[in-house]
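Chapter summary example.
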Amino acid sequence: MKVAVVGAGVVGLSTTAALLAAGVDVVCYERAAAVMGERSAGSSRIFRLAHADPSLVALARLARDGFGRWSTQAGRPMVDAQGCVVSGGDAADRATAMSAAGAPYELVDAGSAQLRVPAVVSASPVLVDPEGGVVDVDAVRAFLVARAGRAVVHEPVHDLETDDRGAIVRGPTGARRVDAVVLAAGAGTSALAARVGIATPSALVHHARFTFPVDEPPGVRRQAWIDTPAADRGLATYQHRSGPARWSVGGSIDPALVAWEVGRDAAVEASREVVLAYARERLAVVPRVVETLYCTHVPDVGDGITFSRSGSVLAVDGENLMKFAPVLGETLAAAAVSGATPAVRELVAR
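The structure predicted for these 350 residues follows.
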């Protein structure tokens, strides 16, 4: 069987690695010069079980086990499980979902001594996810490149076509006939999916995450933090330790400032001003940006994963998919071979 995977982000690479392990003839197309260089970029990402849907909590637990297997194979940990806290917003709903999925959690007050973040948490209730933490993206990248790298072709896909024999993938060097296609191209998925009649969200906005120096008291393991205060009480953020004495912050910026038509440079600068002002006011960090990580984002999608199929083409889309990478790779590889269309609730019910 011949399969084409479009996109060498973390989902595409993990799918390619799983297909190779199953003995499938696979090529992974990546338009950029480097793998995991767009939405999967960076050195770290939050891992959490804390979701508002019990199925996503269960899926994250499966993914955590997958990261454990990868860690054993690589001889290097993939997730630093120092915990994750969620304050304000839907923290109580996430606690309910975690309870339904049998995942450990605690609900505490904003002033609890259990909170280890470089700020005073002001929004209650606060959910403590003890099995959350931070994904070591560099370790994941090295692991997947070692297993999928030989199948990666740095070439864009210009067109897709399906027929009763499978699919034809067209790029600048010609056309390739395959039996199945997995579309995991991030921002590029929508245009290619539309070629074969699959509708996925197409709107994009600019997004940036900023890193600040921070003191690290001896023996303190800072938790990742997702904070959604009331609209009139500050910026909604996600934050985590991204390296020694480094604290990274991303925020939900005014949509008008990060709209696609604003342009990357203007959107990043506007985001920088907002996050820097927030850091000065709220965080115990040095208010000096030492790293900026840019990516694109699909607005108003939130947590969740959508699998869509048209004939031999299977597309996956969603936001924040890094934390699900091990189970998504295995799922998409199996579905490419079988012709099935996965569903999250079916995956976790097995």
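To summarize the output: The domain at 84-130+204-297 is CATH 3.30.9.10 (D-Amino Acid Oxidase; Chain A, domain 2).
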